[in-house]
Write a structure and sequence with these properties.
The protein has 444 residues and is of the alpha/beta class. The chain is 42% helix and 17% strand.
Amino acid sequence: MADSGVKSATDESPRAANRGGATQGSAPVRAEVSNYDIVSHYFELAADRLDVPDDVRAVLRSAYREVQVQIPIELSDGRLHVFSGYRVQHNGARGPYKGGVRYHPEVDLDEVRALASLMTWKTAITGIPFGGAKGGINVPASDCTTAELQQITRSFIDKIDKVLGPTRDIPAPDVNTNAQTMAWMMDEYGKLHGHTPAIVTGKPISLEGSFGREAATGRGLVYLYEEAAPDLGLTPESTRVVVQGYGNVGSWAARIIGDLGATLVGASDQHGAIRSERGIDPHALAAHAKEGGRLPDFQADGVEPISADELLALECEVFVPAALGGMIHEANADSIRCRMLIEGANSPTTPAADRILLDKGVTIIPDVMANAGGVVVSYFEWVQNLQHFRWDEDEVNARLSKIMRQAYAEVSARQAEEDTPLRVAAYETGIERVLDAARTRGYI
């Protein structure tokens, strides 16, 4: 691992160094607005509309528990590197804390706080019995070996195991973590507490993971596309799709909507972007990426590399931001040429960009509802683990479809009744449900 790849808490992050929305080379730059700013903005907007008292708002805004731990690890360069690990438990009024763990050099406490809060509203909107939590380690995962990632993961669990538990807090995968990471977490927790498969979700199938979990977030995006498309006069055959961030969520969304008849005309990863007016085979592209290939190196007839800015400007019916937060901001939102934007990432659109897109007539299906498919199937996995049985994939997908479509129906009905954007209606729905549970329990 190169020494220059390690970011300490005092290093200037790429986001801080490249503010203002400019593009350097082929890589897009995130907005100055943080995830915490974005989530707080929408929370306050919805809380104002609901007339939530200031004292109650203070409880809902802040986290119940925040844990920060030191993870010193000797890496292959022979030097000791010190990473920071975080677990934030935001609100447990509706059930055990639930949320992913991400590995990324820009992870900090504010980002984890924001994502934990988002999970609280997300689980409430979908009606599953969880609270909200999030975790992360500020490690550049792509620069680490598998052995180093395993060592970091096990050290992290050793240090936070007392705040975890199958009825207390259940981690899951997020950015740069996967089923293998969850297997290490489950095994390390099991060393301390005995075999406990329900301690994490998103596990491998061989370790009591759930069928359908890997594709769940992307599949959930497609279910909501199917619900929203008729209002725009769209059919899959008439839908061109652009995906920003062709990782797990983006690639599964592209494959599933492609199987319905839609055409993938553009995609990107951290290395660059590609386009094709004739369409890109989403399955071949996913296989290329899974084998470690860079998207700009994908070879197919009619496919050409483009810049990150050019990707945003591609004409399409559906744009899926599935990279990191703050990727769509005031400096680039006006260039987006889509009719529907479905947020696969958490907080990909800043409030300023949100206003620009809404003024252009773009239908925005917000992250707090759109990408909830992952936590819904995590709930299914947790239920299966607690009872030691397994549903087949068809049953998992059918149950996911029912919950996602019901959430959309409830939020869109509120949107129509109150004449407000879907995002505001979604936040209002989530906040109301958490308030009801907290008051009923005597929590507030």
